[in-house]
Amino acid sequence: MAVVLLPGTLAAEAGGQKRFELDASTVGEALRQLPVTNLLFDESGELRRLVNVYVDGVDARGGRLLDEPLSEQSEVRIVGAIAGGS
Amino acid sequence: MAVLLPVGTRKGLFLLSPGHGSSGWEVEGPLLPGWSVFHAIVDPRDGVLYAATNNPFYGATVHRSGDLGKNWDRAEEIGLPEESGLKLNATWHIEPGSDSELWLGGDPGVLFRSDDGGLTWTVNRGLLEHPTRDRWQPGAGGMCCHSIQLVNGTMYIAISAAGAFRSEDGGESWMPINKDVAADFHPEKYPEVGQCVHKLLVHPAKPDRLWQQNHCGVYRSDDRGDNWERLDGNGLPSGFGFGLALDPDDPDVAYVIPEESQEYHYTSEGRLGVYRTDDGGASWELAANGLPDRAWAAVLREGCTFDDGNVYFGTQSGSVWTAPQGVSSWTEAVRDLPPILSVEAAAV
Questions:
Q1: What's the sign of the alpha-carbon dihedral B97, B103, B105, B111?
Q2: Which of A12, A43, A48 has its CB closest to that of B57?
Q3: Each residue of B119-170: pLDDT tens digit?
Q4: Which of A82, B227, B283, B286 is most buried, judging by how many CB atoms fall within 10 Å of its CB?
Q5: Is B56 within 8 Å of A51 when comparing Cβ atoms?
Q6: What is the DSSP string of B55-76?
Q7: Residues B52, B62: contact at Cβ < 8 Å?
Q8: Could you tell me if A81 lies within 8 Å of chain B, comparing CB atoms?
Q9: What residues of chain B, 67 to 86, have a C-beta less than 8 Å from chain A?
Q10: What element of type H or E holds A13?
Q11: Which ipTM score applies to this complex?
Q12: Cβ atoms within 10 A of the Cβ of B26, count?
């Protein structure tokens, strides 16, 4: 089972749960099983621009992003882009 | 019944209620931390608390709570149809409907309706596909549908910068109501649409009377928006501002909080000044007893409200001020909140 870790705001929206163990073969498949899907994807089904996804510590936007394959041991970490200041 | 003030800030929602704090107000929050709360209301029909919530990472949505903020539900996907070519940028204003429905205004100049208590939302096609849409443009805060008023079967909305619109058929169609409302930034000074309305209110006891604080002046209409009279210049230091409040018992009373200019968004004359008219806008007087006389504050379009007894406003510097209608003196209910985006008053 791949593990998906949520940051604080998303975890609050998921009933306080930060860690999910999911049966998924790709990043997209994992993210679409989360109870915060509509916060990760816009109405066109596109991953929101400032949502970054790291698979085992590597930025999935530099790879195949939603099609990035997951293994049983994969750790997927969702991180808001560094866009602070406000 | 007691008053409750839902105060939306850039860093969550706060609930203010009369209590034993040093100012006489208790503060609860932040609720919904991580979310910018553009507007929050308590629905007078059932006591449900709604918040128009926005996050730079996770988009625009609506939260609802049936127990005044202890537990929250989030709306399902709120979006625009793919064929529109538009995407929802922000949720701006929630308004209870005339029956059981709720209305939600958003950016880019869109309106939604919910018939299940804010869980799902359907876009209003009459506005989405309005024949003048290609002449609308975003203001500095985006192309936000920020004012929604319903009275006697008539709906009014206002969008920055598209202007004000009226619907007589429940939102099926929308007629621009911008006659004699200036758009000084526009090649045509008095266009059919494109005005930058900052806030529009209908007087609750005199529904033919509308007030608007505009980018280009303060206006009043006595015929449901068919004609507008520009009111600034009669004691107001500036026609530019955002906040607008009324007195439910007196249709001739209004309050505005002028700002220096469209270029300088802070209160006029280096002070925090509320201006009041009691003659329908023919003249305005400074009503600032208790407010700081050296201040460069700013009050946003949702940051000013009223009820039967009081006027309230919140500043971007995090203070909420209250005064009785008529304004003998202002009291600072709370200070040092995050930048305030909205203030509403509810009886709970």
A1: negative
A2: A48
A3: 999 999 999 999 999 999 988 888 999 999 999 999 999 999 999 999 999 9
A4: B286
A5: no
A6: ETTTEEEEEEETTTTSS-EE-S
A7: yes
A8: yes
A9: 74, 76-80, 82
A10: helix A8-13
A11: 0.89
A12: 14
Please give the Cα distance from A85 to B14 (Å, whole number).
22
- CB pair distance less than 8 Å for B61 and A39: yes
Amino acid at A15: G
User: How distant is the Cα of B73 from the closest Cα of chain A, in angstroms?
Assistant: 8
Name chain A contacts of B10, Cβ cutoff 8 Å: 86
Interface of A with B in 43-62 (CB under 8 A): 43-44, 48, 50-51
Whether B319 and B335 have beta carbons less than 8 Å apart is answered as yes
Neighbouring C-alpha atoms within 13 Å toward the C-beta of B146: 31
Please give the angle made by the CA atoms of B147, B111 and B153, to the nearest 5 degrees.
Answer: 70
**Which of B57, B65, B122 is most worth mutating to test chain A (most A CB atoms within 10 A of its CB)?**
B57
Q: Note down pLDDT in tens along chain B; length 348 residues.
A: 899 999 999 999 999 999 876 778 999 999 999 999 999 999 999 999 999 999 999 999 999 999 999 999 999 989 999 999 999 999 999 999 988 999 999 999 999 999 999 999 999 999 999 999 999 998 888 899 999 999 999 999 999 999 999 999 999 999 999 999 999 998 899 999 999 999 999 999 999 999 999 999 999 999 999 999 999 889 999 999 999 999 999 999 999 999 999 889 999 999 999 999 999 999 999 999 999 999 999 999 999 999 999 999 999 999 999 999 998 899 999 999 999 999 999 999
Q: What does the alpha-carbon distance between residue B132 and residue B143 come to, in Å, rounded to a whole number?
A: 14
**Interface contact B128, partner A, CB < 8 A:** no
Q: Is B329 left (phi over 0), alpha (psi -120 to 50) or beta?
A: beta
Chain A and chain B share a number of CB contacts under 8 A equal to 53
